[in-house]
Description:
Blueprint: H1 2-19, H2 21-40, H3 44-74, H4 80-113
Amino acid sequence: xxxxxxxxxxxxxxxxxxxxxxxxxxxxxxxxxxxxxxxxxxxxxxxxxxxxxxxxxxxxxxxxxxxxxxxxxxxxxxxxxxxxxxxxxxxxxxxxxxxxxxxxxxxxxxxxxxxxxxxxxxx
Length: 123
């Protein structure tokens, strides 16, 4: 039973990551931010905050994708209520992404201004 749940979840992730340009973009941006984290020599606490933030954006985008797919399947015609629901879901992604952007600023500005960025990479 648990194995089938993981199978369904992994299939959903695979389907979404291969078909949805928004999640692909967020994933590429997340990889870039993770590389910046290495260069910024983030503390373990900052890494935890960064991973939680990235996870929140990706989870919001996955939820938005699920709602859009279901709405398009159930009612493919234009409908005001469905449009509003999709807009709200997209707005949720936007809110999480903006908050994550502010978190990123708070995490990355101190190493840049203290000129410690990259110092942990020196051999």
